Amino acid sequence: MQQFFAVIGDPIAHSMSPAMHNELFQLNELDAYYLPLRIKSEDLRVAVAGLRAIGIAGFNVTVPHKEAIMPLLDEIDPLAKAIGAVNTVVNQAGKLVGYNTDGTGYIAGLKEDLQDFNQKKMLIIGAGGAARGIYYALAEAGVEEIDICNRTLDKARKLAMECPYPVKSTLLTIQEAEQLLAQYDCIIQTTSIGMSPHIGEKPLSLKKLNQHAFVSDIIYNPHETAVLHEAKQRGVNVQNGLNMFVYQGALAFEKWTGILPDSERMKKNVLQQLG
Ligand code: ATR
């Protein structure tokens, strides 16, 4: 019988996940189909009951449901519980189990371009949901020092304080981070500054960037944000958000099927969709 998968969110029309996963099902000759489902927040409970009733094999969860889905599931993986957000659900013999592959996907993508990531001194810019997923996954993976800078310091403090994995963190204002930038081996930009309607803007200046640093931005559209542009001009290696997007999908696909797909092929598919 054909297996059914979905991504639930609102809005959802522009999600690239259906094309990504449907291509993977075809390539792996699996009789499965993946649909985008627009679910309004007030309908989430009923929608999850409906997905259970039709025996959905698995689904992705995106904005605005990543936190609200949690009490509706039967089990939550410890990392997703710590992060406080679920982006992937697996139907394990009738039990809906929630995972978070955003941070682990980020790490898998980072490893492609940065060796020994867990020995690097890191700076995360931003303290929202994306920063949280990445910070907790990096801490769980053994990174010892991850500083955070954010416009609102209280949010950075809360993020660091609630992390259950041992990691050393200094919390910085944007201005402090600009001054101390030379200390960092790896800088991770997680704010929405750089994508529409903030194209061409930067959350901070890279004037004091270390020549050996690596700069990553989780935005992939546009493919080169102003931060990455400046980092490249300063001669350092950079990575945009395509790797994170592809690997969060690849790790979800692996949880559903046991198959870890070819990430290079997935990147081509996403780039084609972006046009
Ligand atoms: P996401 O889930 O994508 O991380 P989010 O939880 O809304 O989104 O977090 C957005 C991040 O971008 C936060 O770090 C936010 O800073 P604040 O915590 O101070 O709000 C940051 N951000 C968004 N707009 C910003 C702006 N105009 N200037 C500086 N930081 C901004």
TrEMBL record:
<dbReference type="InterPro" id="IPR006151">
    <property type="entry name" value="Shikm_DH/Glu-tRNA_Rdtase"/>
</dbReference>
<comment type="function">
    <text>Involved in the biosynthesis of the chorismate, which leads to the biosynthesis of aromatic amino acids. Catalyzes the reversible NADPH linked reduction of 3-dehydroshikimate (DHSA) to yield shikimate (SA).</text>
</comment>
<dbReference type="InterPro" id="IPR036291">
    <property type="entry name" value="NAD(P)-bd_dom_sf"/>
</dbReference>
<feature type="binding site">
    <location>
        <position position="62"/>
    </location>
    <ligand>
        <name>shikimate</name>
    </ligand>
</feature>
<comment type="subunit">
    <text>Homodimer.</text>
</comment>
<dbReference type="GO" id="GO:0052734">
    <property type="term" value="F:shikimate 3-dehydrogenase (NAD+) activity"/>
</dbReference>
<dbReference type="InterPro" id="IPR022893">
    <property type="entry name" value="Shikimate_DH_fam"/>
</dbReference>
<feature type="binding site">
    <location>
        <position position="87"/>
    </location>
    <ligand>
        <name>shikimate</name>
    </ligand>
</feature>
<feature type="domain" description="Shikimate dehydrogenase substrate binding N-terminal">
    <location>
        <begin position="7"/>
        <end position="89"/>
    </location>
</feature>
<feature type="binding site">
    <location>
        <position position="220"/>
    </location>
    <ligand>
        <name>shikimate</name>
    </ligand>
</feature>
<dbReference type="GO" id="GO:0008652">
    <property type="term" value="P:amino acid biosynthetic process"/>
</dbReference>
<keyword id="KW-0057">Aromatic amino acid biosynthesis</keyword>
<dbReference type="GO" id="GO:0030266">
    <property type="term" value="F:quinate 3-dehydrogenase (NAD+) activity"/>
</dbReference>
<keyword id="KW-0521">NADP</keyword>
<keyword id="KW-0028">Amino-acid biosynthesis</keyword>
<feature type="binding site">
    <location>
        <begin position="126"/>
        <end position="130"/>
    </location>
    <ligand>
        <name>NADP(+)</name>
    </ligand>
</feature>
<comment type="pathway">
    <text>Metabolic intermediate biosynthesis; chorismate biosynthesis; chorismate from D-erythrose 4-phosphate and phosphoenolpyruvate: step 4/7.</text>
</comment>
<dbReference type="GO" id="GO:0050661">
    <property type="term" value="F:NADP binding"/>
</dbReference>
<feature type="binding site">
    <location>
        <position position="218"/>
    </location>
    <ligand>
        <name>NADP(+)</name>
    </ligand>
</feature>
<dbReference type="Pfam" id="PF01488">
    <property type="entry name" value="Shikimate_DH"/>
</dbReference>
<feature type="binding site">
    <location>
        <begin position="15"/>
        <end position="17"/>
    </location>
    <ligand>
        <name>shikimate</name>
    </ligand>
</feature>
<feature type="binding site">
    <location>
        <begin position="150"/>
        <end position="155"/>
    </location>
    <ligand>
        <name>NADP(+)</name>
    </ligand>
</feature>
<dbReference type="InterPro" id="IPR041121">
    <property type="entry name" value="SDH_C"/>
</dbReference>
<dbReference type="GO" id="GO:0019632">
    <property type="term" value="P:shikimate metabolic process"/>
</dbReference>
<feature type="binding site">
    <location>
        <position position="248"/>
    </location>
    <ligand>
        <name>shikimate</name>
    </ligand>
</feature>
<protein>
    <recommendedName>
        <fullName>Shikimate dehydrogenase (NADP(+))</fullName>
        <ecNumber>1.1.1.25</ecNumber>
    </recommendedName>
</protein>
<feature type="binding site">
    <location>
        <position position="102"/>
    </location>
    <ligand>
        <name>shikimate</name>
    </ligand>
</feature>
<feature type="binding site">
    <location>
        <position position="241"/>
    </location>
    <ligand>
        <name>NADP(+)</name>
    </ligand>
</feature>
<dbReference type="InterPro" id="IPR011342">
    <property type="entry name" value="Shikimate_DH"/>
</dbReference>
<dbReference type="GO" id="GO:0004764">
    <property type="term" value="F:shikimate 3-dehydrogenase (NADP+) activity"/>
</dbReference>
<dbReference type="GO" id="GO:0005829">
    <property type="term" value="C:cytosol"/>
</dbReference>
<dbReference type="GO" id="GO:0009423">
    <property type="term" value="P:chorismate biosynthetic process"/>
</dbReference>
<comment type="similarity">
    <text>Belongs to the shikimate dehydrogenase family.</text>
</comment>
<feature type="domain" description="SDH C-terminal">
    <location>
        <begin position="241"/>
        <end position="268"/>
    </location>
</feature>
<keyword id="KW-0560">Oxidoreductase</keyword>
<feature type="active site" description="Proton acceptor">
    <location>
        <position position="66"/>
    </location>
</feature>
<dbReference type="InterPro" id="IPR046346">
    <property type="entry name" value="Aminoacid_DH-like_N_sf"/>
</dbReference>
<comment type="pathway">
    <text>Aromatic compound metabolism; 3,4-dihydroxybenzoate biosynthesis; 3-dehydroquinate from D-quinate (NAD(+) route).</text>
</comment>
<dbReference type="Pfam" id="PF18317">
    <property type="entry name" value="SDH_C"/>
</dbReference>
<dbReference type="Pfam" id="PF08501">
    <property type="entry name" value="Shikimate_dh_N"/>
</dbReference>
<dbReference type="InterPro" id="IPR013708">
    <property type="entry name" value="Shikimate_DH-bd_N"/>
</dbReference>
<dbReference type="GO" id="GO:0009073">
    <property type="term" value="P:aromatic amino acid family biosynthetic process"/>
</dbReference>
